[in-house]
Amino acid sequence: MTDRLPRRWLMLAVTLVLMFMGAAAQAAGPLVDTPWLRRALTSSTPPLLLDASPARQHAAGHIAGAINADFYSHGSREVDAATMQARLRAWGIADNASGQTLVIHDQGGTMLATWLFYELYRHGVAPERLRLLDGGLAAWKAAGGALVSEATPPPTPGNIRVIAAREDARARLPEFLAASGDPAGHALLEALDPPYYYGGAKFFNRGGHVPHALLSPADDYFRPDKTFKSRAELQAMLDHLGVRREQQVYSYCGGGVAASVPYFALKFLLDYPKVALYQGSQKEWLEDARELPLWSYAAPSLLRNADWLNGFSNTMLRTFSHSPISIIDVRPAEDYAKGHVPFALSLPSQRFQAALAAPEQLAALLGPAGVDPTHEAVIVSQGGLNKQAALAFALLEQLGQRKVSLLLESAEDWELRGLQLSREPTRVGARKPPLDPTIAPVDYQARPRAILMSSAALAAKPPAHGMPRVYLALGSRPPAPELPGKVVHLPYAQLLDASGRPKPAHEIWSLLAKAGLPRHAQIVCVGDDAGEAAMGYVLLRLMGFADLKLAAS
Fold it and tell me: Which of 113, 193, 420, 478 is deepest in the core (most CB within 10 A)?
């Protein structure tokens, strides 16, 4: 009895070891680490190791047995099924029934491994067979893993069959174009770096980004050690951008390669249900004969010009049709009386300033004055972007106005362009059908937003949403006393050109980055007065920053 007991325990131990080694080839998710790979490579059924690095880097040093699957050397041009099948078989990839596991890696923290992962998945390799070495070769070397420079012998040709690619993995131009006009139902993630997004750099003939696209660079998905951020960190980042699971998500870049990083993270790490990669990316977009637009500002429609406003708000349109625009003139009443944009409503900036402590009082004023909360409210001021216009902008957004924008030209500029000014106050009252451009008063009912922050809220801890709170000080001097958190000082005047208008997007981005303002944070704009803080709020809205607050005092 005593002799048999140790043998039973020995058999149990051997069984557990074998089970553990078998589990090494069946990781729970697509990411594997270096200890997992070490165990898997010494198991009875080692995986096929595919190095997605460029051939030169692979030759300089690679993990023993790794096959160089340099997808980049073939280019991103689409090939037929037979060509792709021959390529995959040459790398030793067997069919899905073989039980073969594939582990993909690159140098670490790049787009090459995720691109190869995407292409293998798109061409029929079952996703449960695919693994990606987290951190790539950098993680392998950091863990003491050895490298060899001898060429790996060609593998036994595989027998995988490529019949047709998975169309649901790839977006085509027509659907991507339609998605760019529906930001509520779709999220477009641009995987290029900020200088490309803001138009300061370009791959092709024009710089900028597809309308309504969100800046989501491939580098944002990695930690400094080149491993992917945790799922919780990735989810917090996407929540911060406003990407929702019920949306159709499309990733894109310049040529369809960097876009594989957000695609991989959303689909295979976070299990977003509707994700596709737009392989044509900017190259196809810009080649289109329709001259499809690229934006440099994230929200360029926040800035309006005289031609636009005159086209959508004129006597003929307001008399015979409908103009869903409320024009708010925040200049002093005496300036308004000397001449104003037709159909502008006089609401001097002092009224907005007085409403800082109780914005609901402003709502009671706007409706009777003729401001409709369902309209686009266009703010007219002395021209350019100034503190009075910016404060009105922020307060209207706080009240829940559907859309708010700024007319960059002054009333004098309007007249110099050959457009007529009105000297009579805009009529607000009961309309006399059938044809009357009089503006009717309304009951101003909107859904307030949480933009303004009180002194007490400024001193409180930031919400537990995974993002830090950062204070952007827009005054000429750093704020005093010190605020409870990181403070970035950047006087708003540096973000405007000589005419008082916002500088080009890429110049603003360069100044923000140099000052150290993070993109993934709750940004609270502060200043010596609320107008200065509002200047920062408007400029960051223009640049597409997601979580903005305004210090109301």
Answer: 113
d(CA 329, CA 411): 10
Residue with tokens 């073939």: 74
Q: How far is CA 327 from CA 301, 377, 380, in A?
A: 15, 6, 7
The size of the chain, in residues, is 553
According to DSSP, residue 437 is labeled: -
Residues 6+ apart with CB under 8 A from 184: none
Contact present, 253 and 216 (Cβ < 8 Å)? no
Q: In what order do the strands lie in the sheet with 469-473?
A: 452-453, 547-551, 522-526, 469-473, 486-489
Which secondary structure element, helix H or strand E, spans residue 18, and what is its range?
helix 4-24
User: How far apart (Å, rounded) are the C-alpha atoms in residues 457 and 379?
Assistant: 28
Q: Which residue in 208, 103, 115, 113 sits closest to 509, CA to CA?
A: 208
Does residue 256 register a pLDDT over 50?
A: yes
Q: Taking the CA of residue 143 as centre, how many other CA atoms within 13 Å lie in the half-sphere pointing to its CB?
A: 18
Residue 267: alpha-carbon gap to chain centroid: 16
For the chain, give the percent of residues with pLDDT over 70.
93
Contact indicator for 373, 383 with CB cutoff of 8 Å: no
Query: DSSP secondary-structure letter at 473?
Result: E
Q: Which of 201, 123, 117, 229 is nearest to 167 (CA)?
A: 123
Contact (Cβ atoms closer than 8 angstroms) between residue 187 and residue 212: no
Whether the Cβ atoms of residue 263 and residue 269 lie closer than 8 Å to each other? no
Strand partners, 295: 209
- Please tell me the distance from the alpha carbon of residue 132 to that of residue 551, in angstroms, as a whole number: 45
- pLDDT tens readout for residues 261-282: 999 999 999 999 999 999 999 9
Nearest-angstrom CA–CA distance, 403 and 395: 12
Confirm if 471 and 486 have CB atoms less than 8 A apart.
Answer: yes
- Mapping DSSP onto H, E and C, the string for 367-426 reads HHHCCCCCCEEEEECCCCCCHHHHHHHHHHHHHCCCEEEEECCCHHHHHHCCCCCECCCC
Place of tokens 């890429």: 506
**Separate counts of helices (H) and strands (E) for the chain:** 21, 20
